[in-house]
Amino acid sequence: MSKILNDFLTSQLNGLKEQGLYNEINVVTGPNGPKINIEGNDLINLSSNNYLGLATHEKLKEVAKQAIDSHGVGSGAVRTINGTLDLHVELENKLAEFKGTEAAVAFQSGFNCNMAAIQAIMNKEDAILSDELNHASIIDGCRLSRAKIIRVKHSDMDDLRMKAKEAVESGNYNKVMYITDGVFSMDGDVALLPEIVEIAKEFDLITYVDDAHGSGVMGKGAGTVKHFGLEKEIDIQMGTLSKAIGVVGGYVAGTQELIDYLTVAARPFLFSTSLTPADTRAIIEAVQTLMDSTELHDKLWENGDYLKKGLKELGFNIGNSETPITPCIIGEEKLTQEFSKRLMEEGVYAKSIVFPTVPRGTGRVRNMPTAAHTKEMLDEALKIYEKVGKELGVIS
Ligand code: PMP
Q1: Does residue 185 have its Cβ closer than 6 Å to ligand 1?
Q2: Same domain as 298, residue 278
Q3: Is the ipTM of this complex over 0.90?
Q4: From the CA of 27, how far away is ligand 1's center (Å)?
Q5: Final residue of a domain: which of 240, 258, 292?
Q6: Which residues form the Aminotransferase class I/classII large domain (predicted)?
Q7: DSSP string for residues in 6-29
């Protein structure tokens, strides 16, 4: 190995380990359901984005197997050669119907979808106003576009108005976009979309909402934009197919012109092989399941409310979440990591999240209850929380 590379890797890894930032990977044996098996231990799983339990849904598994029989395991090419299967077209029509837009386009992951769409639409003559807590894939998409990036204080509408005015009135940019998560995954709070739309109208901003954590959760399942009835106002709705939908992939939904443009300009659409038949078929079934019934959505919220109430009654600080995402804010980084480790030893898998993902001193154990959890599992988790919380002096 090159000496320079060797020295670089060693110093990087040692630095991360010294700061307690080297993430140990937990390997899950078997399905990622409400209970998971890690290193032989069955644990109550409060750390997965499988909000509706669809990742292990029987019907989705069945249709995925059928799609392998009818279409094979791979799609064979990128979308623009011959990797656009009838299943992809069916999925995109279904997504547009689900999101209440004219059209939609699917990508291989939510991450590459953000990088693709932002880069395709914005360029170095433009500016992007971006909420400071936006997801890493948004940050990378903004960087890739080479537009001027202007960070906006989290959900601070005065800051947004001021920076939008400044950017537009400077005359330095051809286009100005405001981009935000719909639901913020670290705190479970919701973007102030009605106010954002008002400001966007005032300054002719392009609006882009990443609803990775809102789809399936907000708006009776159809997402945060639908929750506020703003389908006609938000220009670009992006989402993942890997969280509530339970499979893998990402999408953009919007006008026919927007989607037509992305199919000629979004680089992963042009240069990366499309979603597999099994995944695509399972996603179609998942979206249809959400469109047919709110049963799973309702169960998710019932479980979220139940866990929140239980943790609050025990005396934990659960922040200001407006969604089932339930942070349990511990504070100091080392204590947060110890808390999560002790939970795991007692039977609950709830991952700690510390700086730099969240600000210093706001370390938390983040809980993601799902529609697939039973009351018994949540009661058991609460019992363990109480035990560990008292043991480590987090609650009295
Ligand atoms: N956007 C947000 C807000 C996310 O939380 C995530 C996933 N962590 C992504 C995009 C990327 O989605 P995916 O995992 O489907 O690539």
Answers
A1: yes
A2: no
A3: yes
A4: 20
A5: 292
A6: 42-383
A7: HHHHHHHHHHHHHTT--PPPPPEE
CB of 181 within 6 A of ligand 1: the answer is yes
**Nearest Cα residue to atom 13 of ligand 1:** 110
Please provide the average confidence, as pLDDT, over all residues in the chain: 96
Q: Which structural domain, as residue segments, surrounds residue 269?
A: 58-292
303 CB within 6 A, ligand 1: no
7-38, pLDDT tens digit by residue?
999 999 999 888 777 778 899 999 999 999 99
What's the number of domains the chain is made of? 2
Same domain, 222 and 335: no
Instruction: Please tell me the residue having the least CA distance from ligand 1 atom 4.
Output: 212
Is 243 annotated in the active site?
yes
Q: Residues 248, 384: one domain? A: no
Residues 168 and 76 in one domain: yes
Rounded to two decimals, the pTM is 0.95
* Alpha carbon of 249 to ligand 1 centroid (Å): 9
Angle ∠(244,245,251) on CA atoms, nearest 5 = 110
- Ligand 1 pocket residue status of 112, Cβ below 6 Å: no
Residues 38 and 77 in one domain: no
- Annotate 169-229 with DSSP letters as a single string: HHT--S-EEEEEESB-TTT--B--HHHHHHHHHHHT-EEEEE-TTTTTTSGGGT-HHHHTT
Does ligand 1 have an atom closer than 6 angstroms to the CB of 109?
yes
Residue 213 confidence (pLDDT) above 80: yes
**14 falls within a domain:** no
- Taking the centre of ligand 1 as the mean of its atom positions, its distance from the CA of residue 318, in whole angstroms, is 23
Residues 6+ away with beta carbon under 8 Å from 328? 311, 316, 317, 318, 350, 364, 365, 366, 367, 385
Q: In this structure, what are the phi and psi dihedrals at residue 171, rounded to the nearest 5 degrees?
A: 70, 10
